[in-house]
């Protein structure tokens, strides 16, 4: 397959996904192979929700909307423009995926195939309904992919390179198991927001999207705030309040109740509003329904601290504080060229 053929296939996949990317599913008769795949994917969406209580209709729809927006000709062309992708000798790249949010491993899957390699996918048991079905659609619009996509639930074997994502513990296992192979190994990272007290109501409302989307389970979710010494949280809590229906979700409510009980029994100081807690803590990774915060006196000193801790941080959300900052409300809208852990996976794939 030529590069343009691969690009065209993913554009068509984007057209297919777009039908499911709004609250109301809308069939587009111009989309290829709908007669075979449309109803089947609706069923897979239902299965994904039943299998994983965190994968609500709203969160799956949000993920699909993100990928429908990404898989356009303009976006893919812009993404690949800096690279020379010619005459690649295909290798088999194992991709070991996390399962914290819907289709979380899709970018790695896309990157391997778009560069001309073969992909060997090992999915998390938490997220195994959607990608295999979308892969079949991809094979229908571009039969050249048929021998290039393999899914396995067994031990991964027979690969030339690996991209693996997991916890800090599994990352250490990955580093040992995959030693001697070209690899990208990702572990736990969290995202932070830096507040100055000058944020508008709209800024803080946008920040709530960074905190609550996907129940805070993604590495791009804000789990830690840095605030000035005299910061008043009243405006912050007011801006968060429109997310209060989240407490109606049983899994979230159970985590909220459990973590609140632990904090109270441990006599920790917390601030809470009935569905969400903040706690002063130096850690970056906070439990569900909780965001940690830490106070700072000097922005330059904070920058030095965050630079030293950069391997623990995925995104920095702020307004005019950092060179590579992300705007409030934008963490869950990465572009194709926004690489996890700032590691260029396409460059890696072209080097193996």
TrEMBL record:
The answer, when asked if Oxidoreductase is one of the entry's keywords, is no
Q: Which InterPro entries match?
A: Ald_DH/histidinol_DH, CoA_reduct_LuxC
Source taxon at top rank? Bacteria
Q: So where does this one cross the membrane?
A: none
Kindly state which keywords UniProt assigns to this record, in alphabetical order. NADP
> Which processes are annotated in GO (biological process)?
bioluminescence
Any one GO MF term held by the record is: acyl-CoA dehydrogenase activity
Tell me where the signal peptide lies: none
Q: What is this protein called?
A: Acyl-CoA reductase LuxC
From what organism does this protein derive?
Answer: Jejuia pallidilutea
């Amino acid at each position: 397959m030529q590069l343009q053929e691969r690009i065209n296939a993913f554009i068509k996949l984007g057209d297919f996904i777009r039908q499911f990317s709004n609250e109301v599913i809308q069939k587009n008769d111009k989309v290829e192979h709908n007669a075979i795949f449309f109803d089947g994917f609706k069923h897979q969406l239902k299965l994904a929700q039943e299998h994983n209580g965190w994968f609500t209709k709203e969160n799956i729809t949000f993920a699909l909307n993100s990928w429908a927006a990404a898989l356009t000709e303009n976006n893919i062309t812009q993404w690949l423009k800096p690279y020379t992708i010619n005459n690649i000798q295909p290798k088999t790249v194992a991709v070991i995926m996390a399962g914290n949010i819907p289709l979380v491993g899709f970018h790695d899957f896309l990157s391997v195939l778009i560069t001309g390699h073969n992909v060997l996918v090992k999915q998390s048991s938490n997220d195994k309904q959607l990608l295999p079905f979308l892969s079949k659609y991809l094979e229908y619009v571009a039969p050249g992919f048929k021998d290039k996509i393999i899914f396995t639930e067994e031990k991964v074997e027979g690969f030339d390179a690996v991209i693996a994502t997991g916890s800090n513990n599994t990352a250490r296992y990955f580093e040992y198991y995959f030693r001697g192979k070209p690899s990208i190994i990702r572990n736990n990272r969290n995202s932070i927001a830096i507040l100055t007290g000058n944020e508008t109501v709209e800024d803080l409302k946008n920040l709530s999207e960074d905190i609550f989307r996907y129940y805070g389970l993604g590495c791009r979710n804000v789990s830690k705030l840095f605030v000035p010494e005299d910061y008043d949280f009243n405006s912050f809590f007011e801006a968060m309040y429109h997310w209060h229906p989240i407490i109606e979700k049983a899994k979230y409510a159970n985590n909220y109740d459990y973590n609140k009980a632990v904090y109270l029994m441990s006599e920790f100081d917390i601030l809470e509003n009935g569905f969400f807690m903040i706690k002063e803590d130096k850690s970056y990774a906070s439990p569900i329904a909780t965001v940690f915060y830490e106070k700072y006196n000097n922005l330059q000193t904070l920058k030095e601290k965050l630079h030293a801790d950069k391997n623990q941080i995925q995104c920095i959300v702020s307004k005019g504080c950092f060179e590579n900052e992300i705007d409030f409300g934008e963490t869950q809208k990465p572009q194709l060229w926004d690489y996890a852990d700032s590691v260029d996976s396409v460059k890696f794939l072209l080097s193996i």
